[in-house]
TrEMBL record:
Native source organism of the sequence: Pyxidicoccus fallax
UniProt domain Aldehyde oxidase/xanthine dehydrogenase a/b hammerhead: residue ranges: 28-133
Segments of this protein annotated with the region Disordered: 1-21
Pfam family, one: MoCoBD_2
PANTHER family assigned: XANTHINE DEHYDROGENASE (PTHR11908), XANTHINE DEHYDROGENASE SUBUNIT D-RELATED (PTHR11908:SF157)
Essential cofactor(s): Mo-molybdopterin cytosine dinucleotide
UniProt GO molecular function: iron ion binding; oxidoreductase activity
Descriptive protein name: Xanthine dehydrogenase family protein molybdopterin-binding subunit
Length: 774
């Protein structure tokens, strides 16, 4: 990708910690979420989940449920179009058709006058099953004798949703040149998104036109529109999607089935239907992060050059592919890490099992592979007798070098991140193991992190109103992270207007320009890019009219803060946006407005450099880098780990809103803390054992470190607005390995499976003592 111009913002709004405009309404409880919506005649929808992990459906009997007073509709797959949906593979029905593939899979849907009646109707539905053998382990699912979950689609094992192979250099011959080789197997859990607002949709059908309007908690209005139209076999023009406030998502509200099922109930009843999941239904029916097992071997010379790496990755995608093949792409693509390792062999499978489907989740396959890679690099440093940061510095990719597959690293700032992390964490002193409290051991660990910013397509429209105010419209959804604020700052900075003069519209598929999704560290980066492009076009129109009004050539004009165009070198000569807009509306030119669109270009893998199977291109985005450090204290008696302090250093390009960026980093660290120490979905024979907030352990206020230091490095580069880069996902990616490396520094325990619960840490400590460690 070529270099990009980085225009400077006008005024001081870009780089300011502007408060989120929705903060007051959320704090006071006035914010309207989907479940707050009420309309006359509204019914309530609920779903019946499968009691079996793998079974053939023999028959349904819904007669008793339909006869229950207050029930308006009972649907099964027989009442819906025979359509399967899926982001990559069309393998998932809205309601189980023919057989069920995980415990909790929706089998029937009910609409009734109130939730109590609806749930009573579920108890009256009779479904006869023929139980089939299940498989719950991804590697076991690839064995020749494993139960087959889906009809074969081609060569290879039918339970492999995707298979990838990437080879660079000559890995088979490189191992003999390595002085130190570390080999291990790493496991990461299925993590639940735990957004505070469960999935919720209100569907209304126009009685005259049959048009369906969906109010829904989602990350993507346009994907909801497309998926609902596809699933119900209706034109997209018959679906309108509006997005109220969203109470978190983290990837869990992208490719969802709750919207089309709710719409189907509304069509069946001719009445509005709202379906809001309970926490348990959300956890058992929606999706999780992919659990993974990673076999990794890394070799280096005694002077610290990493020469070779071999990786075998098994992503457990659950019963349906969902975003699994995309997650496997990212996991494979980052398996080399942000290092110049010349000889690499990566093989990755995305595998069907009889568990809850897994999909997109903050980091998108990268937290799994970074855990294995960064823990192994630390062990390599230990074996070489090198400082962990020094080893990473010696091998870190720099600007102009190539990523695995040949993509150029255009802004290689990992060195800067590592050096800054070493400085701010007082790394050298803390590595001396400060004396802890009695019965405790203290250690510090770190991880180098790489991710990407930007993905797929976006568009935006900017309009100057007659009073000089500015309307900005995109389809981007603010899921609570504050993207509306940052994007408004981008527009205000590009045009030189105060935020009070700018209105940012909410997503509506009838009126908003297209945006693929809020996810993939893309919103500020990608949508901000198209906003600046649209603002540039608006600026040209403003200058054209101002030139006529001021009788000055365009080349002498400049934007001035407060929404004015002035003459360079003449402080007293200017004209307001309002006056220019009035001139355009009533004298010449017409309304001042502009639209911009952009599709982030996919990088075609260099097949001359890399042997590639199962992957041809990466719509991957712009590389971003970070370094994360954690100091821990481990209880020798219980194995309990307390994270005392943390440092997260990020190259943010150009910071748009420092407070928002710091909040993203701190929030990402806490979510990564849960991934590292406490969070894990647990199954027994396919039944989820902890589908409640009581049983699923997210970090509480007392679990958070006393300080999470967010350090923002500014190295503007790339097509993001004013050179901005993303930070949302990368803030989580390196947390687990940094914490586990700190545990090993404190105790010598090699943590290969997360979460690093007290029991697992204690088991490693006892094993180490048995083997003669200390």
């Amino acid at each position: 990708m070529s270099s990009h111009p980085k225009p400077e913002p006008v005024g001081d709004v870009v780089g300011a910690s502007v408060p989120k405009p929705d903060a007051r309404e959320k704090v006071t409880g006035r914010a309207v979420y989907t479940d707050d919506l009420r309309v006359p005649g509204m019914l309530h929808g609920v779903l019946l989940g499968s009691p079996h992990a793998h079974a053939r459906i023999l028959s349904y009997d819904t007669s008793l449920a339909k006869a229950l007073p207050g029930v308006r509709a009972v649907l099964t797959a027989e009442d819906l179009p025979p359509v399967d949906i899926g982001a990559v593979i069309k393998d998932q029905p809205l309601l189980a058709r023919g057989k069920v593939r995980y415990v909790g899979e929706p089998v029937a849907a009910v609409a009734a006058v109130d939730p109590t009646t609806a749930r009573r109707a579920l108890e009256l539905i009779r479904v006869q099953y023929e139980v089939l053998p299940p498989v719950f382990d991804a590697e076991a699912a690839l064995r020749p004798d494993a139960p087959v979950l889906h009809a074969p689609r081609g060569p290879g094992h039918p339970n492999a949703a995707s298979h990838i192979r990437l080879i660079e250099g000559e890995p088979d011959g490189a191992w003999a040149k390595c002085d130190v080789i570390i080999e291990d197997v790493y496991e990461t859990p299925a993590q639940q998104h735990i957004y505070l607002e469960p999935c919720s949709t209100l569907a209304e059908v126009d009685p005259d036109t049959g048009r369906i309007t969906l109010h829904t908690s989602t990350q993507t209005a346009f994907r909801v529109q497309a998926i609902t139209a596809e699933a119900l076999a209706v034109p997209m023009s018959r679906i309108r999607v509006l997005v109220p406030r969203v109470g978190g998502a983290f990837g869990g509200k992208v490719e969802s089935t709750n919207q089309p099922i709710t719409a189907a109930l509304a069509l069946a009843t001719g009445a509005p239907v709202k379906m809001t999941f309970s926490r348990t239904d959300d956890m058992t029916m929606m999706r999780s992060r992919h659990g993974a097992r990673i076999h990794m071997r890394t070799g280096a010379t005694r002077d610290g050059r990493i020469l070779a790496r071999q990786v075998r990755i098994y992503f457990d995608t659950g019963a349906y592919a969902d975003d699994g093949p995309f997650v496997a792409n990212i996991g494979s693509y980052f398996a080399r890490g942000p290092y110049r390792i010349p000889h690499v062999d990566v093989e990755c499978w995305c595998v069907y099992t009889n568990k809850l489907r897994a999909g997109a989740f903050r980091g998108f396959g990268n937290p799994q592979i970074h855990f294995a890679s960064e823990v192994q690099v630390d062990r390599l440093a230990e074996a070489l007798g090198m400082d962990p940061i020094e080893l990473r510095l010696r091998n870190a990719l720099e600007t102009g070098e190539k990523w695995l597959g040949g993509a150029p690293v255009e802004s290689g700032t990992l060195h800067a991140c590592l050096e800054r992390a070493r400085e701010v964490s007082d790394w050298q002193r803390r590595r001396q193991r400060a004396p802890p409290a009695p019965g405790k051991r203290r250690g510090i660990g770190m991880a180098a992190v790489a991710h990407v910013s930007g993905l797929l397509g976006s568009s935006a429209t900017v309009r100057i109103n007659e009073d000089g105010s500015v309307n900005v419209s995109t389809g981007a959804v603010d899921t609570g992270q504050g993207s509306d604020t940052a994007l408004a700052q981008v527009a205000a900075g590009a045009l030189g207007v105060p935020l009070s003069q700018l209105h940012f519209s909410r997503p509506d598929t009838d009126t908003s320009p297209y945006d693929w999704c809020t996810g993939g560290t893309r919103t500020t980066f990608t949508v901000g890019h198209v906003i600046t492009q649209a603002c540039e076009q608006v600026r040209e129109q403003l200058f054209e009219h101002a030139s006529a009004m001021l009788q000055r050539p365009v080349q002498q004009l400049e934007l001035r803060p407060g929404g004015h165009v002035g003459v360079r070198g003449e402080p007293g000569t200017s004209v307001s946006f309002g006056a220019i807009s009035g001139y355009a509306l009533y004298v010449a030119g017409g309304p001042i407005l502009a639209s911009a669109r952009w599709l982030f270009p996919a990088w075609q893998l260099d097949t001359q450099r890399t042997h590639v199977e199962g992957l041809t291109s990466m719509g991957n985005g712009f590389f971003v880098f970070a370094a994360q450090v954690a100091e821990v204290e481990v209880d020798e008696l219980t194995g309990h780990v307390e994270v005392l302090e943390a440092w997260s250093v990020h190259d943010v390009g150009r910071v748009i809103n420092p407070a928002a960026a710091e909040g993203q980093i701190q929030g990402g660290f806490v979510q990564g803390l849960g991934y590292a120490l406490t969070e894990e979905l647990l199954w027994k024979e396919g039944h989820l054992l902890n589908p409640t907030m009581g049983g699923y352990k997210v970090p509480g206020a007392l679990d958070v470190p006393r300080a999470i230091h967010s350090v923002l490095l500014e190295h503007p580069a790339g097509p993001g607005p004013f050179g901005a880069k993303g930070v949302a996902e990368v803030s989580l990616v390196g947390v687990a390995p940094a914490i586990c490396n700190a545990i090993r520094h404190a105790t010598g325990a090699n943590i290969r499976r997360i979460p690093a619960t007290g029991e697992r840490v204690l088991r490693e400590l006892l094993a180490r003592e048995t083997q003669g460690g200390h």
